[in-house]
Write a structure and sequence with these properties.
Elements lengths: L10 H20 L4 H4 L10 H19 L9 H6 L14 H21 L6 E3 L13 E3 H27 L3 H9 L4 H4 L3
Antiparallel strand pairs: 1-2
Length: about 190
């Protein structure tokens, strides 16, 4: 994968390509980590690499469900709050980094499939009225807006993952991309 999204033909391709690029950044941050390292909190934050992977998979699934007409945030405030079990950002002892990465790949494939099948990116996506941090004066977003929001959330957490990973072992995003993809960097180092 190049360090930048390749040229795109249309808006749908752009939205999906930029989302795929941000997902890859999250996966690169997790590259080569053990489950123990994926649970580490090397910064003042409680965030972990494993917890971030788990969270972005959950977040993407919920928002794409909503854009597909599934009441993803529950139908009442009580149902909504019950969705949060307190470990959404945590890789529990029963979970593995490999498992949450596999789930994230499944969620990504489903997103691509559902978005490809949608006729209209401008189609309305009703705003759940029982979620306290959603706007009360907006009746609907669009599928387009939801995809931009998922991109925004994923990018935000990719940045968190970069900082956490660099705090764990010093690897930065570009180094991890090179490692994960097996780039030949001998020309850069003068070793030929």
């Amino acid at each position: 994968m190049p360090g930048n999204v390749p040229p795109v033909a249309d808006e749908r391709s752009a939205l999906l390509a930029f989302l795929a690029h941000q997902r890859a950044a999250i996966r690169f941050a997790a590259h080569g980590l053990s489950d123990e390292q994926a649970r580490m909190t090397p910064t003042v934050s409680k965030l972990t690499i494993g917890g971030l992977v788990k969270h972005v998979a959950h977040t993407e699934r919920v928002w794409i469900d909503l854009a597909s007409g599934v009441p993803a945030f529950g139908t009442t405030a009580e149902e909504h709050w019950a969705m949060y079990d307190g470990n959404e950002y945590e890789l529990t002892p029963e979970e593995s980094l490999e498992g949450v990465l596999t789930e994230y790949a499944r969620v990504a494939a489903r997103t691509e499939e559902l978005v490809d099948a949608m006729d209209d990116l401008g189609a309305p996506v009703p705003v759940p009225k029982h979620v306290p941090w959603f706007p009360s004066d907006v009746d609907a977003w669009s599928v387009r807006w939801v995809l931009h929001h998922v991109n925004e959330e994923t990018a935000r957490h990719a940045g968190h993952a970069d900082i956490i990973r660099e705090s764990i072992d010093g690897y930065d995003a570009l180094s991890l991309m090179a490692l994960a993809e097996g780039w030949d960097l001998s020309a850069l180092s003068g070793d030929e």
